[in-house]
Write a structure and sequence with these properties.
The complex is a heterodimer. By secondary structure, chain A is an alpha/beta fold. In chain A, about 40% of the residues lie in helices and about 15% in strands. In chain A, a hairpin with a 6-residue loop joins strand 3 and strand 4 (about 85). Chain B has a six-stranded mixed beta sheet, with no helix packed on it. Classes of the chains: A alpha/beta, B alpha/beta.
Chain lengths: ~270, ~250
C-alpha cells in the first residue's frame, strides 16, 4: 500500500513545490517508486521545478475527467526511472478537482507506487483541502517568521479535523515540520525566529531545517530539484530529511551558524 | 413507570407516551411479620389520618426478606388497601413476591443490591432472570459534561465544553476555547479563552502561561492590549469580582 504524503503550509512562497520536488526525487533515488502530483491547478509550477514542462501533454484534470488515462498523463523523469510526475492543468481552476476524482486517481496510483507526494497549493481552499484529504503523512513547510508559523498552525488544525483519517476516526495523520529558508546568522541577530521559537508554537516533530541558499533559486531556474545539488547546503539538508523520514537517525544540521576556517574567511563561502 | 416511546403521527394523535417523574411516598418494610407491620401501620396512620387517606404508595421490600422468612406481598397489598392506601408499585421484592404483585396488577421493580439478605437468598441464575424481567431503571441524572483535550488547539479551531474545559497542551494564537464552566490550560494560552459563556460569573480561567489575545468571563472581557505586562507569560488565574476581571499570578 502506498504512503500518501502531502506537502502543505497554508502560506504561499515558503517552498512547498521546491520541497515536493526534492523529497520526491530523494525517495525515488533511494529506489522507491514515487509519484508527485501538482494540486495547484491554474498555477502550475511543479513541472518547471522538475524540468519537464515541455513534455506535458495531459494533466491531472484530464485524468479526473476521464479524458486521458493515468498512464498517458504521468511523465517519467529522465534522471530517475523510479520517479513520475503528474502535472496540474494551467487552463483550469481548482473547481475542476472533485473529491471523488482525486480519490480515484490516488487509489489507482496506490496500486503501483510506494510513495505519492501531493504538492498542495497555498491557502486553505478546495485545492489545498483535497491535497491533504487523503494523506497519511503531512510535511508542514514553514518559514521562520510569524505569519508563516501562524498559517502552518491553522493548516495543522485542518489536518487534524478535515482529513479522511479524521472523518473516519482512524489514526491521525503523521505531522512533520520542515523549517525552510533558515538563516542562522539572522536568528542570532534576532531578526528571525529560531527553531526553538517555532517549535514552541507548533510543537511538531522536526524533520529538518533547510538553510536559506542561493542554490535553491538556481535549481528552480534550471529545472533540477535542489536535492540533486549535493554540494549545496540545501541539497544536503533535503537528503537528510529523506533519510530521517525513512527512519534513519541523522543529527540536525544547519541550525547553528557555520564556523568558517581560515580559508573560508579569506575566500568566502557559499 | 415510564417509557420513551412515541406514537407516529397518524392524522391527529389521540395519545402520547411521555417520560416523566413525580414523587410518591415509599413504604419501607423492615419486618417479614405481617401482623407486626399492620399494627405499626395503623398506629402511624392514626396520627395523621387525612395525610395518608387515599395516598398512592410504593412498597419497598429490599430490607424485609430474611433467609428464613419472607413477607407475602399479596397479603401486604390487601392490608394496605384495607387501610385506605393505594399501593402503586413493589420495589426490591424477590421472584415470588413480584409474581404475587403482578397478579394483583401492581407493577414491580427489582433493585440490584449487594445486601446479603437477598443475594444469599437465591442462586445467581435466578437473579439474572429477575433482571431481565425488571422494568427499566429510572434515568440517571445527566453528568456534568466536562471536556479533556490533550493535543494542541491550533489556530482557527474552536472548542466548546458544556462543563469545564481542561487542556493539557497549548492554545495557539487564533484559536478559541469556550466553556460554560471553568477553563484550565496546562500550557501557553495564546488564543482566546471564554469561560462562563452562559453567564456563570463564578467560573474562572487558569493557565500556566498567559499570552492570550482575549480572556472573558461571563461576557466581561479584556483584549491582550489591556492585559497587564506583569502577568504576561506567567501562570495565572482569571476571575470576576464585582464585574471586574481580576488577573492574578498563581
Amino acid at each position: 500500500m502506498a504512503r500518501i504524503i502531502v506537502v502543505t503550509s497554508g502560506k504561499g512562497g515558503v517552498g512547498k513545490t521546491t520541497t515536493s520536488a526534492a523529497i520526491a526525487m530523494g525517495l525515488a533515488k533511494k529506489g522507491h517508486k514515487t509519484a508527485v502530483i501538482d494540486f495547484d491547478v491554474g498555477l502550475r509550477n511543479l513541472d518547471l521545478i522538475m524540468g519537464c514542462e515541455r513534455r506535458v501533454v495531459y494533466d491531472f484534470v484530464n485524468v479526473i475527467n476521464g479524458e486521458a488515462t493515468l498512464r498517458q498523463a504521468l511523465i517519467k523523469d529522465k534522471r530517475c526511472s523510479q520517479l513520475y510526475i503528474l502535472p496540474a492543468s494551467q487552463t483550469r481552476d481548482k473547481d475542476a478537482l472533485t473529491q471523488e476524482g482525486v480519490g480515484k486517481v490516488l487509489e489507482e496510483l496506490s496500486k503501483e507506487f510506494k510513495y505519492i507526494i501531493c504538492d498542495s497549493p497555498a491557502g486553505i481552499e478546495r485545492g489545498a483541502n483535497l491535497a491533504m484529504y487523503f494523506a497519511d503523512d503531512a510535511f508542514v513547510v514553514t518559514n521562520p517568521e510569524v505569519s508563516s508559523v501562524r498559517d502552518s498552525d491553522r493548516m495543522l488544525g485542518i489536518l487534524a479535523s478535515k482529513s479522511r483519517r479524521a472523518e473516519e476516526g482512524k489514526e491521525a495523520i503523521n505531522e512533520y515540520l520542515l523549517l525552510t529558508r533558515y538563516a542562522p546568522k539572522r536568528v542570532k541577530l534576532g531578526e528571525m525566529l529560531s527553531v526553538e521559537d517555532v517549535q514552541d508554537i507548533l510543537s511538531l516533530h522536526l524533520l529538518g531545517v533547510i538553510p536559506e541558499s542561493e542554490s535553491v533559486l538556481n535549481a528552480s531556474n534550471s529545472g533540477t530539484p535542489v536535492i540533486l545539488d549535493e554540494e549545496s547546503n540545501a541539497g544536503q539538508a533535503y537528503l537528510d530529511v529523506v533519510a530521517r523520514y525513512l527512519g534513519e537517525d541523522k543529527p540536525h544540521r544547519f541550525i547553528e551558524e557555520e564556523k568558517k576556517g581560515i580559508f573560508g574567511k579569506l575566500f568566502g563561502g557559499k | 413507570m415510564s417509557t420513551d416511546a412515541t406514537i407516529p403521527n397518524f392524522e391527529k394523535s389521540a395519545l402520547e407516551f411521555k417520560s416523566t417523574s413525580f414523587s410518591v411516598p415509599v413504604l419501607v418494610i423492615f419486618s417479614a411479620e405481617l401482623k407486626q407491620v399492620e399494627l405499626q401501620l395503623k398506629e402511624k396512620i392514626s396520627k395523621a389520618p387525612d395525610f395518608f387517606k387515599n395516598s398512592p404508595i410504593l412498597i419497598d421490600l429490599q430490607f424485609c426478606n430474611t433467609s428464613e422468612n419472607e413477607i407475602d406481598t399479596a397479603q401486604l397489598i390487601h392490608c394496605l388497601q384495607d387501610n385506605a392506601l393505594f399501593p402503586v408499585g413493589v420495589s426490591g421484592g424477590n421472584d415470588k413476591q413480584n409474581a404475587q404483585a403482578i397478579d394483583l396488577h401492581i407493577p414491580t421493580r427489582t433493585i440490584r443490591t449487594t445486601s446479603s439478605a437477598i443475594s444469599t437468598h437465591k442462586p445467581a441464575v435466578e437473579e439474572k432472570s429477575i433482571e431481565e424481567e425488571a422494568t427499566p431503571a429510572e434515568p440517571t441524572p445527566p453528568s456534568v459534561e466536562n471536556k479533556l483535550i490533550s493535543h494542541p488547539i491550533r489556530s482557527g479551531q474552536r472548542i466548546y465544553a458544556k462543563g469545564d474545559l481542561i487542556i493539557l497542551s497549548h492554545v495557539s494564537a487564533g484559536a478559541e476555547v469556550m466553556a460554560e464552566g471553568n477553563i484550565h490550560i496546562y500550557g501557553a494560552l495564546r488564543g482566546r479563552a471564554l469561560a462562563g459563556v452562559q453567564g456563570n460569573t463564578e467560573s474562572r480561567i487558569f493557565c500556566s502561561d498567559l499570552q492570550a489575545e482575549l480572556v472573558s468571563i461571563a461576557g466581561n472581557y479584556q483584549v491582550s492590549e489591556d492585559l497587564d505586562k506583569a502577568e504576561h507569560c506567567q501562570p495565572t488565574q482569571i476571575y470576576l469580582q464585582e464585574q471586574t476581571l481580576i488577573i492574578k499570578k498563581l
